[in-house]
Design a protein that fits this description.
404 residues, mainly alpha, 16 helices, 0% strand, globular
């Protein structure tokens, strides 16, 4: 994401960073504007209730996209300077900005007050949404990269921007393709299993004909999901395929910079920065209703810590393999990242499935008891990831000192 002083000729990497960043800024601003106009036009002929879940979710989504576009502007400016100004970008002193992250509880508190206040206050929630997410992600990121030697602003913002936009776009396409492949597999499976086809048709009719307040569809959904083939497919997709794809693609900025002979600590720092961008995009665009915003906001801190730590680990492994030929370290770091990510997703899925009483009736008492402790497991993983970031930062700083 930056120009090497020794390189000659046209800087294709900076050109690509500039073109992508500028295009992404314009695209995100456009989609954000269209989303806002759609919400306003939707309420033009009726009372626009800001306490309505769908309205609030749409406004949060629009604000999130707009904020993501703003965060891509530094990447555009620094890569443009390198491309057109022929001047090295200013070193990024991220440590001087770390104090901003410690204020993240304040917007969360304001969001909580808005959530429990009058309905008109929800119009302020989109602003609180972007401030709370930006500050919290920045705080978690700096736990892992504090007091590292400064590197160029172009590299830092380029890595952050790649995680914020490029990786989500690519992973979305791949994950949809995998989902379609699973759908094809299920179509084939249904053709060979008349009992399965009959249960699916019955469930679809039941959902269509039942009243909105009926508990019958939920009970049947729970019983259907409890089938081994259905549960296995859900966990296979969310706990294995998604972690594999995301952990392979989240450190995309590290791949671009491997030719710069990154040191392992640089690979960790760039990977963690890209992971923070990816986590922020998820947090900004996640659906959250007016009555659940505070809970979702706090719970997403754990997801952010997971993304930042796992991407940092993979970046560390990639740089170690490329620079120091430590290929087992690369394989081990990738396996650890996928395992941690898979465990996080698996506990979330298991916790969600356990909400169906009929699902609990179909599984063994051991798994029922395990489901009760799934939230505690998520908390432990989140706290462990935060501790892991602090510990990795300490160890890598010692390695820098020893190397110097």
């Amino acid at each position: 994401m930056e120009h090497s002083p020794q390189s000659k000729g046209f800087n294709w990497l900076s050109a690509g960073q500039f073109a992508f960043s500028l295009s992404a800024v314009l695209f995100l601003f456009l989609i954000s504007l269209i989303s806002i106009i759609t919400v306003l036009l939707g309420g033009a002929s009726s009372d626009l209730g800001f306490s309505d879940t769908q309205v609030v979710s749409s406004l949060l989504f629009a604000a999130g996209l707009g904020f993501a576009g703003i965060l891509l502007i530094p990447s555009t400016i620094y890569s443009g300077r390198r491309l057109f100004g022929n001047r090295p970008p200013i070193s990024a002193q991220w440590d001087k900005m770390v104090w901003l992250g410690y204020f993240f509880p304040i917007p969360i508190l304001f969001g909580y007050l808005i959530q429990n206040g009058p309905a008109w206050g929800y119009i302020l929630l989109p602003v609180i949404h972007v401030l709370a997410n930006g500050a919290s992600i920045f705080w978690v990121l700096n736990l892992g990269r504090r007091k590292f030697p400064a590197r160029s602003a172009q590299r830092n913002w380029g890595a952050f921007g790649a995680g914020l936009t490029l990786t989500p776009a690519i992973t979305f396409v791949i994950e949809i393709a995998l989902l379609l492949m699973i759908g094809i597999f299920w179509l084939i499976l249904i053709q060979t299993r008349p009992d399965l086809e009959q249960d699916i048709l019955y469930l679809m009719n039941l959902v269509y004909e039942s009243s909105p307040d009926s508990e019958v569809p939920a009970r049947w959904v729970g019983e259907f999901v409890a089938r081994p083939e259905v549960t296995g497919t859900i966990f296979f997709y969310f706990s294995l395929l998604i972690p594999l794809v995301e952990e392979l693609l989240k450190p995309i900025a590290v791949y671009f910079l491997l030719g710069r002979k990154l040191q392992p600590w640089e690979g960790f720092m760039i990977g963690a920065t890209a992971g923070a961008g990816y986590a922020l995009f998820e947090n900004l665009t996640i659906g959250a209703g007016a009555d659940t915003w505070t809970f979702v906001m706090i719970s997403r801190l754990g997801t952010a810590a997971i993304h930042i730590l796992t991407t940092g680990l993979v970046g560390w492994g990639l740089a170690s393999a490329w620079t120091e030929k430590k290929y087992f370290r690369m394989a081990g770091s990738f396996l650890a990242a996928v395992s941690l990510h898979g465990a996080w997703n698996g506990l979330n899925i298991f916790n969600a499935l356990a909400e169906f009483p009929a699902y609990q009736d179909q599984i063994s008492p051991f798994y029922v008891n395990f489901a009760r402790f799934a939230p505690a497991g998520l908390i432990l993983l989140a706290l462990g990831s935060i501790v892991g970031l602090v510990r990795a930062n300490s160890l890598l700083r010692r390695a820098i000192i020893a190397q110097d």
